[in-house]
Amino acid sequence: MLVAAAVVAAAVIASAAAAPEPVAKIRIGASSGMVISAAGSVWTTDLVIPRVVRIHPASNAVAKRIKVGQKPFGLAYGARSIWVSDRSLNRLTRINPRTGKLQARIRIGFSSYGLAFGAGSVWVTSESDRTLRRINPKRNRVTAKIRAGAQPNGVVYAFGAIWVADLGGGKVLKVDPRRNKVVARYDVPKADWITPSADALWVSTEANEVVRLDPATGAVQARIPVGTNPLASAWVAGELWVPNIDDGTISVVDPARNAVRTTLTVGQGPLAVAEVDGDAWVSNSTDGELWRLRP
Length: 295
Hints:
Layout: E1 8-9, E2 16-18, E3 24-27, E4 32-38, E5 41-46, E6 51-56, E7 61-67, E8 72-78, E9 81-86, E10 91-95, E11 102-107, E12 112-118, E13 121-126, E14 131-136, E15 141-147, E16 152-158, E17 161-166, E18 171-176, E19 181-187, E20 191-196, E21 201-205, E22 209-213, E23 220-225, E24 234-236, E25 239-244, E26 249-254, E27 259-265, E28 270-276, E29 279-284, E30 289-293
């Protein structure tokens, strides 16, 4: 792929600073995994004690713990349901967010990773068979299997397409949901997770950087050094909060400068961030806590 000449590289990472005092630290269990905002609550997976945990943001209290699978990881919301993929079982679980009842169990690939809802379907990546699966929520069954590179990880719906981070192949794949087909491949070494903005795709990579991509052309607009092993970022107060799993920090990226504005020291093994009512919710995969931070 031809890279645009005006690629911006942020050469200096802001020195680590103490995070704002958390509004709350919620004990999830052994390991807080992915985190999303859905149906008026905050949801996270416990990777060790197999369950999904629901938190009321008004009280910062755990409202429900739902036993799911063996190693629940991916989370998504759509079709009035919570969807949970499992790293150990070839199973996608559908949960009624109002009652917490399990509505369906759908057979998928082993070593599932990313999970997203878009174009009227659920999309899940499987590392073991290098496949992106499409699930019809009306029928609770897989309706398409798409070969998705060497090691598909993160997946997101944005700009009318499905985007897959192929970690093993060093690509970002664009999938046309009308044809269930990969229609473009863009070079992003060690691509792991994708977070969209209004005009770009922001790709967390295991090369310890965030790559800003033009979704129309695949041109790299910026390469931004962050912390060690960044993953599931989110937009909070107009900035990209990037959790760095291996050094216990959050890199706060200013999109106007394509640079890290500040680096915050948080809990152990921060894995994912979600924005709820202007606050950042940070899951800590090592100490089993979910932190609520006010920027």
